[in-house]
Design a protein that fits this description.
The protein is globular. It is of the alpha/beta class. Strands 1-2-3-5-4-6-7-8-9 form a nine-stranded mixed β-sheet, with helices on both faces. Strands 10-11 form a two-stranded parallel sheet. The chain folds into two domains: about 190 residues, Alpha/Beta hydrolase fold, catalytic domain (Rossmann fold), CATH 3.40.50.1820; about 210 residues, no CATH class. The two termini are about 15 Å apart. The protein is built from 18 helices and 15 strands. α4 crosses α5.
Length: about 500
């Protein structure tokens, strides 16, 4: 029994994987933009070789350093845990650095230390990135053990721009005492405490660290780096009150997000959106122009679609490119943006989107987006086909802030907020932006709608209730048909941005 608890701390199940199979490929594409994986090895202070990878744009923009986020995995994790982070951050011009900590994955070392020695591994990575002229500022994103590692390191290096701390524990001793109750080990408390003291000596001898030193509450009051905390409400492994205690004593700017799930469950989309917004506001990535529009413009005829000030031209071209890749079965992670092969077809956007017979021409969709009234989209989260209706609100009403999955930073960073309500975030972020028009925002809302079932509720205006009921009834089928086609378009676009990640996260033990 005691040996199992010792292994729980210093030798959990180790992730074994093939980097070429479970990481992003050496050259891959996200949302029509090319990226590459650079593998490298670093040696920590104890002489252990750390297996690392760096996801960067391909080609890298000249004379423009980009911010970088270092992803820190959990106690049974590895580099492959950061696949989602790459999808979320790379389109915002934020590079992602990943590593296997010492004792984890393919790196050297026999034991993990739940953050104590891992913070030295993290220092090795930060020192390497500081010497890289292509990296501007650095952020940290840690989960479980990785969150504690980030917190311990952040207390020593205030130059870190920001941290995302997912499911950190406050005190290892308290956590071990809680797990005795969770796993219903029927022993008197004094016996358990004696066993923990024995484990402390064994772990100190084997792994060369003291479990009593792993106390996040001691460093939180001395850390001033902006931080976003996250925790699952049904987490029984590291219970949510651990993050609450750290959050309460944390000295820097902070925010906390609670979401459904357990310790190892996939995180919801709104949490990833919040992480993206947080890093975008903290790291301030430069707006690097994509080389795609100049290329795609040669091969796609926009037809009757007029690209005006209210349309994000770069995003539009990326969507068209993504749809073309889906149609030509080139939507794998190694697919490249379309070139100019011989006989490459030149089609208008309306023809391209209408080939499957499920879409109206894009002009109709854009006309729909740029109506006088806003369209508020509500997600019902249910499976199966449901009845669809729409709720229209005038411009004087409240603009609802949605959870976006777009690769465009405008839709992620302007109309959402980490700590405010929907009404507050909309009024603060959207009304203060002079560079993006309301029509542009409405277009981004529809183009970035996640692949979910959409429920919309229709509401007749008060002055039309009596005399216009028959006319409204005749317009409902036509309006419903138009929005069903718009939904199909948004689902198709969603498929162009992300594809299924092959790696399944190793559960913490």
């Amino acid at each position: 029994m005691i040996e199992q608890f010792i292994n729980f701390v210093i030798r959990p199940p180790r992730a074994e994987y093939n980097p070429d199979q479970y990481l992003w490929e050496t050259d891959f594409t996200i949302a029509g933009r090319k990226y590459k994986r650079q593998d490298l090895e670093l040696t920590n202070g104890r002489g252990h070789v750390l297996q690392c990878s760096h996801y960067v744009p391909s080609p890298f923009p000249e004379n423009t350093p980009l911010p970088c986020v270092i992803y820190c995995h959990g106690n049974s994790g590895c580099r492959a845990d950061a696949n989602e982070a790459a999808v979320i951050l790379l389109p915002s011009n934020i590079t992602v650095f990943i590593l296997d900590f010492s004792g984890s994955g393919l790196s050297d070392g026999d034991y993990v230390s739940l953050g104590w020695h891992e913070k030295d591994d993290l220092k090795t990575v930060v020192d390497f990135l500081r010497g890289n002229k292509q990296v501007s500022c650095i952020g940290l994103w840690g989960r479980s053990m990785g969150a504690v590692t980030s917190l311990l390191y952040g207390a020593e290096d205030p130059s870190v721009a920001g941290m995302v701390l997912d499911s950190a524990f406050s005190n290892l001793f308290d956590l071990m005492m809680e797990l005795v109750d969770v796993y219903k080990i029927r022993l008197p408390k004094f016996t358990v405490k004696m066993a923990v003291q024995y484990m402390r000596r064994v772990i100190q001898k084997k792994a060369n660290f003291d479990i009593m030193d792993l106390n996040s509450l001691q460093v939180a009051p001395k850390t001033f780096i902006p931080a976003l905390f996250g925790h699952a409400t049904e987490d029984l492994f590291i219970q949510p009150h651990h993050s609450d205690l750290i959050f309460k004593s944390y000295a820097g700017d902070k925010n906390i997000i609670k979401f459904e799930g357990d310790h190892n469950s996939p995180r919801p989309q709104f949490y990833y959106d919040s992480v993206s917004i947080f890093f975008y506001n903290i790291l301030h990535p430069p707006q690097v122009s994509s080389p795609l529009p100049a290329k795609v413009e040669k091969y796609y005829d926009l037809g009757d679609l007029k690209v005006g000030a209210s349309i994000n031209e770069s995003l539009l071209y990326e969507i068209i490119t993504g749809i073309r890749m889906v149609e030509t079965d080139a939507a794998s992670s190694s697919s490249a943006p379309p070139g100019a092969p011989k006989g490459f077809p030149t089609k208008s956007v309306g023809e391209l989107l209408s080939e499957t017979g499920a879409f109206t021409p894009i002009t109709n969709a854009m006309d729909l987006l740029q109506r006088k009234d806003d369209v508020v989209i509500e997600f019902n989260g249910k499976d199966g086909d449901g009845e669809m209706s729409f709720q229209e609100k005038s411009n004087a009403g409240i603009e609802e802030s949605c959870s976006y999955s777009s690769s465009n930073h405008e839709s992620w960073g302007r109309c959402s907020s980490l700590g405010n309500s929907d009404e507050e975030s909309s009024s603060l972020d959207c009304s203060g932006s002079n560079s993006v028009t309301k029509g542009h925002q409405r277009a981004l809302r529809a183009l970035a709608t996640p692949l979910r079932k959409i429920q919309c509720k229709s509401q007749s205006r008060s002055h039309n209730k009596d005399d216009g009921s028959s006319a409204n009834n005749s317009k409902k089928p036509k309006k419903r048909d138009k929005f069903e086609k718009l939904e199909a378009l948004s689902q198709r676009i969603r498929l162009c941005f992300l594809w299924h990640v092959k790696y399944k996260r190793q559960k913490s033990t």
